[in-house]
Amino acid sequence: MGFKHMLFLILFLFHNFTVFTKAQMPGFLSIDCGGEKEHTDNLGLEWTPDDQIIYGIASKISIENETRQQYQTVRYFPADNRKYCYSLNVKIRTRYLIRATFLYGNFDSNNVYPKFDISLGPTHWATVVISDANTIESQELIFLASDPMISVCLSNSTTGFPFISTLELRQFNGSVYLTPYESQFFLSVSARINFGADNEDPVRYPDDPFDRIWQSDLVKKANYLVDVASGTEKISTNLPIITGKDELPPQKVMQTAVVGRNGSLTYRLNLDGFPGFGWAYTYFAEIEYLNPKETRKFRLILPGAPDLSKAIVNIQENAQGNYRVYEPGYYNISLPFVLSFRFSKTPDSTEGPLINAIEISKYVEISDGSFDGPVAASLVSGYKSLNWAQEGGDPCLPVPWSWLECNSDGQPKIISIKLSSKNITGSVPSDLTKLSSLEELWLDGNAFTGPIPDFSGCPNLRIIHLENNQLTGDLPSSLANLPKLSKLYVQNNLLSGYVPSALFNKKNIVLNYSGNENLHKRSSAGRVNKYIIFGLAVGVAALCIGFIASCLILRRRKKDHKQEPKGSFIVSSMSNTLSNTTSEGAQCFTLAELRFATKNFETKIGSGGFGTVYYGKLSDGKEIAVKLLGNNNIQQGKKEFANEVSLLSRIHHRNLVKFYGFCQEEGKDIIVYEFMHNGTLKEHLYGPLAKEQRMKWIKRLEIAEESAKGIEYLHTGCVPSIIHRDLKTSNILLDNNMKAKVSDFGLSKLAVDGTSHVSSIVRGTVGYLDPEYYISNHLTEKSDVYSFGVILLELISGKEAISNESFGMNCRNIVQWAKLHIANGDIQGIVDPALGDEFDIQSMWKIAEKALMCVQPHANVRPSMSEVIKEIQDAILIERGVEEGSSEELSHNSFHSSLNMGLVDTSIDPHLSFHESMARPSAR
Q1: The domain 3-184: what is its CATH number?
Q2: What pTM was computed for the model?
């Protein structure tokens, strides 16, 4: 079945899934998406295929070393503007963990890493970004069920196809995850770490009866757990640990720990989804024997947060003995993206600090859903056998159902219902009359029977289509009371009686009631005809006027086409032949015009291997940059000129330098751009302009975002996509408002549809050149990503990509130099000294790590430009401050905020806002 003919996916699970073994906890549900049959995995978990689904495509994949059956298939959906939902039964007022996993495995044979959204009902849960075909991405959410059914929906595909590998539901028994905000916020799990693990395998079911996944602290990639202090030692015990509560970490997790033998434990951890407000708890159990003279007391040390460093942890005292769990923490704390934490022993302690586990989640605000959600649910409940009624989730959020439209002002409301020719029988649903914001109603071409209902409850109705049904009874006079009604179509029904005269008294209404044999006009027939004829006449007149206008426009276009200068786009002998048209707005300048504008090429503003750029001003006052191509290699220069002009004629984006036109006279090849007043990014980072005024970190981030958006447009907004091939700081220009635009498309290449790469002679600039492209001659969009990663490193360091002096002995390349520092956790070692301390270290780490992902030697592990933009935007949010606080407040109050380790005040002022109350520490 073709995608454009596909309808929405819905999976209604109305039974209770009784296929699980007695050993499993109640409330377990494991769906093998794309699977073909039920199976039991090596953990004893029962998996059910989603083969009841008739939409979406099940695809098999094969990943080396991945033998689990549930990861041999995926189900994927069209990359369109719809949402595709799984609906699951739950128990009201019960807490659940829901987990969705995604293993790409190149299921579509496109090597295009998907990026899409996942939502729980109307609430946006997360953006799924695939960066490695062979790595499982996982999203977990903890929620309190408020309805007997939940919907998990995939939507808003940015790249590739939305897909899913598994969907798991796990029911909790108690209240460990109870928060004061659970009716307003979900908990999105960011980190769950088992310290002192024996190996890299996670701890989960059956060791954890709720099948939470406790990642080993040995898996560095899982959470980027780095900066481990010297003297950190693993310890373990086989003795039982008294947890006291079922939902505390399982015994296997608490039987291992790390100890700081030198007096401290230090870690740095990336928190997905942060910065923001979250829930964070540590778990301690004394699993070493201490004699009466030995003590273990320690505190949390957080620079800039002295209040959090006051509380002292004494595990034996707080847990009331050895081998018992102590669980201090916060359920309301502001956390950064990069969480650095250190535990240090107190002066009177004989032993170093100890930690067994950490669990951190971010609050995700629950959407109220659309205003008309309950009405829409009631409406579709009577038509469950029809495909159009099988679309899950909220009718409007995150995207609307295919047959309706919603407004976007405040809480969404349904404004249009389009159910034409849907094979619907029975009476017109009374639920439609409850949609107070409804503006258009299309029910034509069905088999509706019975009377037309009273639509007085829909005062905004403008258009009603009820034609070609089997409706009976009168034409309600209440229709005339709809103040905005302008079109009413009821022809070809079985209506009877008289057309209400009030309908004919309405101004500018189009009314069609023909084909109803028993529906008559009143005695004022002339008046009736007057209005009907008037309505038809207006329509016919508008149609005629539109037709005549179209003819005149086409005639004018043909005339203009004939008057275009001959030979506008020449170089026809080159492989990059230019079309003989200027329909995209490219102006053909004369050489005389450009000589006048530039005062005979007087003011040079740039130069390079391509030629020289001059400043100019046209007769209308418009400032221009005139690029006069050199003639060192005439044939290659002609190709690059033809290439740039043809590309620039078809691309338009606020972050690409605007193309005005070209000139080819007297053997000269000239391109005319908008003039960018503030020159190149290169000049501001380490050129003469850098000495005059240093560029702040927030401005560098903004320039990175703007440049990345221009490149993303080339990759995803153009068909076929365009690979720039020569990205560098000298090709990023700044306008008079310091907004960045990408320039110089002489070396750019069109991607070829259906292929993963373009075979190309290697061209580009040393230092920015993708090593894989250099070796294989295979040019891809990821070649641009590599170059942009180098630019990010330049923005961080203020250093050139290639230098004989900047990077020390035996190192000329910024990538090699930066990797060495970042791998050792030394971010300060690469930061531009000109930035001083006017930046947030979180945002700096975020960009540095994304830059390293961009410059990976293999293209398939580099992120897309869309992913890079998301990271830059997150870094900008960190700098500007998140929620309602300023960046300064974040830096002092929540930067590197961690877990409260002492007994704290749990009271909350009921008059505080959510964000204010979450600034307070508390313990469970």
Answers
A1: 2.60.120
A2: 0.64
